[in-house]
Each structure stands twice: as structure tokens, then as C-alpha cells.
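Lecture 7 notes: from sequence to structure.
We start with the chain below.
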Amino acid sequence: MKANGIIFGIVILIFISSCGVPQSDYEKLQAENKKLKVELEDCQYGADKLIAKVEKAYSEKKYPLAKQNIELLYEKHPESPKNKYFKTLLKTIEKEELAEKKRKEAEEKDKLIAKVEKAYSEKERAWVSGLHS
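Predicted C-alpha cells for the same chain:
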């Protein structure tokens, strides 16, 4: 009975140790994985793709996204001929962002002034109507 248990244990050990992926298959899959990652990165961050993202973001006035993609283009594709154009576009974006910020601040200021004037006129009316009572 003990002999059967030992033989059974040895068979199980041999079976378990023979399971698994051969090293050559594992290395082949690793190489393919690296290749696919490079292709995926090229699809996501290819020069043409980044240029299209910049132009779309700029046309939609999504300036932070446009700036981010311009930086990615510089980083990933420093040889791109569009880099020179985007360098000037970056300055334009910064000017437009500043103008937009000033416009919003002016709008907020005008709204605040309107609220104060409204509150003041209501208070004045209440004061005048209190005199007539």
C-alpha cells in the first residue's frame, strides 16, 4: 500500500513538472508582445495621428489638449516638419488662452456689477417705499 502511494506521488510529480509552456514558446510570445506594443504606440502616437489631434483640438478650441499633443509630437517625432509650424501655433494658443481668460474675467466682473446694482436698487426702493409708508 505504501509502495502504491509512493509510486502515485512520483507519477504526480512527473506530471506536474512536465506541465507548462516550453521556454522557446515563452520567448517567442515575449518577442511578439514587444513588437505589438511598438505597433500600438505607433498607432497611438504616430506623427500623422498627433498632427491630426493637434489640428482637431485647436479647431475645437481645446487648447490644453492641443498643447499636450504638440509636446508629444516634439517628444516622439522631433524630425517632423510640422514642429516648426506648431511652435508658432503654440504661441498663438497661449495668446488665445490669455484673451479667453480676460474675456471670462470681464464677463464675471460685469455679472458681479449687475448683481450689486440690482441689489442696491432693490434696497433703495425698499428704503424709499419705507419713507412713503
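Points to note: The first helix runs from residue 2 to 18. The CA atoms of residues 25 and 31 lie 10 Å apart.
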